[in-house]
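Incident review: delayed structure delivery

Summary: a single-chain prediction request sat in the queue longer than the usual turnaround. Root cause was a stuck worker, restarted by the on-call engineer. No data loss occurred. The affected request and its eventual output are reproduced below so the record is complete for anyone auditing the incident later.

Affected input:
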Amino acid sequence: MLQDIIVRAAPQEFICRAGSWNDLEQHLEKRGIGRVLIVHGTRSWTAAAPYLPELKRTEVHLHVYSGECTYEERDRIAAYLAKHELQAVIGVGGGKITDLVKSAAALLHLPAIILPTLASTCAAWSSLSVMYDTDGAFIRFEVFPRSNALVLLDPQVIANSPPEFLVAGIGDTLAKWYEADVIIRQLDKPPVEVELAWFAAQKCRDNLLAYSEQELDALRTGELNDALIRIVETNIMVAGLVGGFGENYGRTAGAHSIHDALTSRPEAHNLLHGNKVAYGVLVQLALEENWSEIDFLLPFYTQLGLPASLEDMGLNFLTREDLLKLGERATEKGASIHMMSGEIHANIVADSIQQLEDYIAGQRKDARNQGVEAS
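Output delivered after worker restart:
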């Protein structure tokens, strides 16, 4: 039976152009906002500083976030906003800062304004927050009834960000197609909203495959080009449209359940979100026994440096018992992996992870042998 769908398609306003941050105060004044809290990190704040305008007519408060998007941190931010009677909360940073800002804003019914410094997820676009515990393990995601009030995306800021974050964003965005498709293709007559999500998901995949190589050239030089702008907008805007229109039919399936399971391993906490999701895409394809699609994606993964195996993530020490624990976490009640067809349980996931590991190792061994023969 088709679930109810609530469309949360987009922020109230979205602007993508070089120098867009310069108009922040004008946007605040149009909204009657004169007192704000800016939530930021440390390294991202230093990188963003040259692009931030001076807010001459606005009372500005600053908050440095703790490093995780937790309920404890959300409550601290909300308490500060309430105590000082601030009118809006602005996030300057990556996905976790963005999710914190959205969560705190939702708690107090305040506008959330986002100035992304990374394009590693669609967090700046979406009206939800992914919540973690203080150890960095995934808890749940929460969907809000209000869209973000304003997103100012300056692609020049992204061009000067660490390349590994944009590459991880490509991994996360690639999953939009594979996770949406594995769910939507089960429907006999998808409603129009879901068809739009399906189209946006395919656009994610097509854009990433078409423009990622040229985008990497721009990252190496720090200079904007058309490919970089397209990838940045795909990671944030087009990816956000998938869940915005499709909701549960376009948000997550197997790949994100594998990511969520990996967050339970302390050794995986240093891995970027998008890299874990990219690996999850291959595990999902292994669950479907779609080895031809894995073969198709492997050169793309190699080109970008996305992980295709546990070994690539430094987790090849995991035992069969460890894999079963990952499988249990990935298939717990309510996990999005159950949006896939068929019954999926811990043993099946553990088997698929091991099969993928063996397959990747075999493919790489064959490639090395062919290289030796060619020489």
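Verification: Residues 25 and 56 are 8 Å apart (CA to CA).
Action items: add queue-age alerting; document worker restart procedure.
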